[in-house]
Design brief:
Largest sheet: 2 strands, antiparallel
Shape: globular
Helix content: 40-55%
Radius of gyration: 16 Å
Oligomer: single chain
Structural class: mainly alpha
Strand order of the largest sheet: 1-3
Distance between the termini: 21 Å
Number of strands: 4
Strand content: 5-15%
Order of helices and strands: EEHEHEHH
Length: about 120
Amino acid sequence: KKALHFESSRSSAAPPVPETKGKDPKGAAAVGPGMVDCAQLPPRAALDMQSSMQRQGADAELDLAYSATACQDAQKALSLTAVAKHLFALRRECDMFGSVYLGDRLLCDQLHLALAGCSDKYA
């Protein structure tokens, strides 16, 4: 849910950073329910989603942008809803172009298998 924190691009005040309570013994943040660890996703899909989060808010003056904390948290884990929406958008794009771009179709299939393997809610 941390990835859903928005801030206005014209606002100079940073939102307060909540403390992360769930830590595993190794010191890494625990992946909460409804979250997908980025290590389980195909690297290209995780990087595509992270770059689109960072690009958000750069188009117009009044657009909402993700906070720096949310972009940093997205490097570790992404919400299952966001990953599933990304997969469905990629699948629609592949279907629209008749799977001409084999790399995109391959990424779509890899992302589907990764989600089916790491999330009971998706399967």
